[in-house]
Write a structure and sequence with these properties.
Distance between the termini: 20 Å
CATH superfamily: Phosphoglycerate mutase-like
Strand order of the largest sheet: 3-2-4-1-5
Structural class: alpha/beta
CATH architecture: 3-Layer(aba) Sandwich
Mean pLDDT: 90
Order of helices and strands: EHHEHEHHHEHHE
Low-confidence stretches: 185-193
Helix content: 40-55%
Length: 193
Amino acid sequence: MKIALIPCVPTEWRGEGRLLGRVELTPGPEAENCCEQWAAGLAGAGLQQLFHAPDELSTHTAQLLGRKLVIPTKAAEELAEVDIGLWAGLTDAQLKSRFSSAHRQLREAPLNVSPPGGESLGHADDRLRAFLKKQVKRNGAGTVGLVMRPVSLAMTLCLLDGREPSALWETAKQVADPVVVKYPVNEATPSQA
């Protein structure tokens, strides 16, 4: 099975290095061009369907790509961005300054972190694992796309390509374009890290 992990289109906050969390944001002016480039790159991947997080930004991205690739889109609650609570809108530097011990833990053992007023990253990891397990059973050797916000996308990428959870935070800041990951069909779910 192949899974295309697709970030949401750029936003002003993302350009400023701010944590998006679940805040509803307007796509940046380059959204259409960005999706055209991504669609051209994904055209040969054999995508059969795009699943997307339920927020407006993920939905908008998936709909733009779905029209360009002529494939159906479907919202999936399990793909929702990790609720980072009071951290939404902060830059990495602000997070480090205001929540230094949590920032350190995000780099060392992120699945043990629970942002104030948000969701435990360990809980989000379980939610994403369950979704992936379900898709492997349903799609076998097919190819699907997942449109997500940065932290959930990075968490899923770490699950699928065997990265240590400690790579999560840097991965969330780095992934700006779709990534296609081959996932062995004979495994029922990503291995527990």
